[in-house]
Design brief:
The protein has eleven helices and 15 strands. With 396 residues, the protein is an alpha/beta fold. The structure holds phosphoenolpyruvate and manganese (II) ion (MN). Manganese (II) ion binds next to loops.
Amino acid sequence: MLLQLRPQTPATELAALRRDLSAAGLAAAPVSFFAAPVWRLAPASDGLPAAGPDRSALDALLHRHPCVAAVFSGDFELASRPLRPQGTRVRVATPGGDLEIGGDEMVVIAGPCSVESWEQIRDTALAAAAAGARLLRGGAFKPRTSTYSFQGLGRRGLELLAAAGRHAGLGVVTEVMAPEDVSLVADYADLLQVGARNMQNFPLLKRLGEQRKPVLLKRGAGASIAEWLAAAEYLLARGNDQVVLCERGIRTFETYTRNTLDIGAVAAAKELVHLPVLVDPSHATGRRSLIAAASRAAVAAGADGLCVEVHIHPEDSISDREQAISPEMFAALMSSLRPLAAACGRAVAPARAAAVAHPRPAPALGPAPNAASDPASNETPDAALVPALAVPALPL
Ligand code: PEP
Ligand code: MN
């Protein structure tokens, strides 16, 4: 349970409230990330969660303290919209500068399903940046239905992704699947993705809540809106309010599309919680011909951005080939979104002059600028795939 307190409440009144709560067996801890004071209540001693006064006794206690402005309870109380009615702006620090998700600009993330090679990710990054994408995506640790499918390049994929992002002036987003990989992936990624299959991987959510990089939380294909928001609460409850939700389609009886884009969930999530909401039209439809229409629906529904799978050669995609769009399709999509976003009171970043793919094959790889060495890893960069050569970051 959360208590929202009136700003500028005298310390004596706060102390009196704390005393009464303590007498009722409850400890109050301030929540650091809200501007107005918010206290979280928990049983004062290690007891069962049900310990403490019953609800009517607690209500009576709170009524005696006019400094309590509002009470929130439930599975996503920290994420409740009224606690931050203006919405959370999630700050993503990238090598090319900071950006915000949840502000006036819709942020578009683009890139391949999987990082496959230096040329693939570099050229896709340059094309994505030229069309107005703000972040580059690409999976290095891939959740695949079949254990025989390509599982991603792992650490080498992270290195290539981060290098391509620097090369194109884009921050990078990639999936982390296991709690023990969080610090490795966080050394390279600017935004850490939790995939649909891991939405309720609670040890993973707990670990991500304890670190400070922003998190992109995809909705599970079989998760209700309430379960998705409760999963986000795991992150907030551990101190990380830099959480972006992503609707990526749910499993229904429909088979023509890979999933069913739940456009109503975008509006519902924005109504219920203060976190930004993106839409992934690629996994939602599974068909490249439907991605533009689904993206436009997302803009109209009030999404704060998109996450789109783009591949320099879609037909060669190792994973999710049917939904990969070409750079040309992506550029056309972005052009079609701008007037629509403007009509909805939002903006989409302009296209920029296309950067020419660097003729040299690859950047110097190795630990990311902020990466600690990882003695546990026995993967070394494949020299044939990743020749060492420094490539300067392009200016934004
Ligand atoms: C992905 O983003 O490549 C992915 C696997 O998505 P999801 O977790 O939504 O299936
Ligand atoms: Mn994919």
